Amino acid sequence: MLLIDELDRADEAFEAYLLEVLADSQVTVPELGTIRAAAPPIVVVTTNRTREIHDALKRRCLYHWLDYPDAARELQILRAKVPGVGESLSRQVVAFVQSLRREGLFKSPGVAETLDWAAALAELDQIALEPGIVSDTLGVLLKYQDDIARLDESRVGALVAAAQAEVVT
Prior knowledge:
By secondary structure, the chain is mostly helical.
């Protein structure tokens, strides 16, 4: 099995090279020589859609869309991967991130960012979301300055209040 993660982050020349590698089931590494697969590998290619993948590569792939998990599943993942986070904070983090994904951002936070953010908040000894700490740590969740700038103090406060209310109900 071969995993090619976030192919959309590579340039188009790499895609052309990848087509050749996949067609021949081999790759040449200058320091190691040619490495041949005994059988054609199962290849999994992931993309975050930051740019379109060339049609020649798409024609050779089966397509499967993986959406963000729902809140219940994301909470399960958070509990399993970052067990030191308190229950109330975990629920608030998931509710906040789920709401944030509906904000029409350039790049919504993925599950990895949710986990990183929850761990960061736990390291900061947070037991609940607070607008100030959320604003100070948005860079853990959001990777584009324009997205961070869109969330002014009042919007962050509203999202925090909604996340807290959701946890209470």
